[in-house]
Amino acid sequence: MTTKIIIAGPRGKMGKEAVQLVRETEAFQLAAVVDSKNAGKIVKELPDMPDEQAPVFDDMRTCLEETDADVLIDLTTPAAGKQHLELALDHHVRPVVGTTGFSEADVEKLREKTEAKELGAIIAPNFAVGAILMMKLSQMAARYFSDAEIIEMHHDNKLDAPSGTAAKTASLINEVRPHKQQGHPDEKEDLDGARGAEVDGLHIHSVRLPGLVAHQEVLFGGAGQTFKIRHDSMNRQSFMPGVKLAVENVLHLNTLVYGLENIME
Ligand SMILES: NC(=O)C1=CN([C@@H]2O[C@H](COP(=O)(O)OP(=O)(O)OC[C@H]3O[C@@H](n4cnc5c(N)ncnc54)[C@H](O)[C@@H]3O)[C@@H](O)[C@H]2O)C=CC1
Ligand SMILES: O=C(O)C1=N[C@H](C(=O)O)C[C@H](O)C1
User: Fold this and answer.
1) Distance CA 99, CA 143 (A)
2) Catalytic residues, which ones?
3) Which of 15, 143, 235, 253 is a good FRET partner for 117, with 20 to 30 A between their CA atoms?
4) Ligand 2 midpoint to CA 122 (Å)
5) What separation in Å is there between the alpha carbon of 164 and the centre of ligand 2?
6) pLDDT tens figures, 136-186
7) Which residues bind (S)-2,3,4,5-tetrahydrodipicolinate (predicted)?
8) Which ligand gives the minimal distance to the CA of 237?
9) What does the alpha-carbon distance between residue 62 and residue 103 come to, in Å, rounded to a whole number?
10) What is the DSSP letter of 51?
């Protein structure tokens, strides 16, 4: 069976790789793309795009109304991604969302919607297998080290901070440790933000620099020792096996899955 796919954000850094992935995968077919402009063209008329005939839309609702599709892959911006996901569910198209910047409240609202419609959806803050392992191992380590700080490092075109991966890592760690306000009880910031952002007592530091792609360290500290888990994505191809896995799995789901670790064997 062929899976018919819409890609939102096809000219972006991730979107380009996703177009390539769909073309290379025999069981996948590119049904349409949703770009922020270029409506009425076909994919091959967009700059640096392969010889692909699928139509380009600049409006998700129109695309969903006019396209026979099974899955939407969204790789856009936090604001657009939230709208696209809801519209896809309304049109019975299963979303695979790589776009980050979703709050826990957003995720819960979307979970309710998928359950009401009995339709699968996947929100994956990170598609790279190494990043999933970093998150899972961090949760395991937090059982033994209750003090942790997250340092995420990304390219300077990133819109959201902290990264979706850092937010998800913090929530996985906080699931297994008792509430802990880290640092000295009397500590005070002489410069706002010096201690980073805080999620339930755990601190996240966001670095943005040209030259970086996507990197994260999770530092644990205990009496007389520290322990560090680090993951580096050197390029966006690192995310594509996870995108493929998510598309294959979302077809068999009837609720929202938040995080690829929930569908990895
Ligand atoms: N889950 C994961 O493993 C990964 C997630 N990401 C996330 O994916 C998203 C995209 O990242 P990049 O490709 O690096 O960004 P990018 O800035 O290179 O691409 C975003 C694309 O979305 C398009 N876009 C914006 N609004 C749109 C709309 N309303 N409709 C259609 N297209 C629209 C832009 O024109 C642009 O081409 C970000 O949220 C990022 O955090 C990035 C890498 C890995
Ligand atoms: O914007 C990016 O580049 C990335 N975004 C995701 C995130 O926010 O965690 C995944 C990865 O870190 C790359």
Assistant:
1) 30
2) 154, 158
3) 15
4) 16
5) 6
6) 999 999 999 999 999 999 999 999 999 999 999 999 999 999 888 999 999
7) 155, 164-165
8) 1
9) 27
10) S
Share of the chain residues as helix, strand and coil, in percent rounded to the nearest 5: 35, 25, 40
| Ligand 2 center–CA 103 separation, angstroms | 15
For residue 241, is the peptide bond before it cis, meaning its omega torsion is within 30 degrees of 0? no
Set out the domains of the chain in order of their start, with CATH numbers.
3-123+237-262 (3.40.50.720), 129-234 (3.30.360.10)
pLDDT in tens, 27-73: 999 999 999 999 999 999 999 999 999 999 999 999 999 999 999 99
Q: Whose CA is nearest to atom 39 of ligand 1?
A: 99
State pLDDT tens for residues 199-233.
Answer: 999 999 999 999 999 999 999 999 999 999 999 99
Spatial contact of 139 and 259, defined as CB atoms under 8 Å apart: no
Question: CA-CA distance, 258 to 253, in Å (whole number)?
Answer: 12
Instruction: Tell me the per-residue pLDDT of 77-108, one tens digit each, with 9 for 90 and over.
Output: 999 999 999 999 999 999 999 999 999 899 99
pTM (two decimals): 0.96
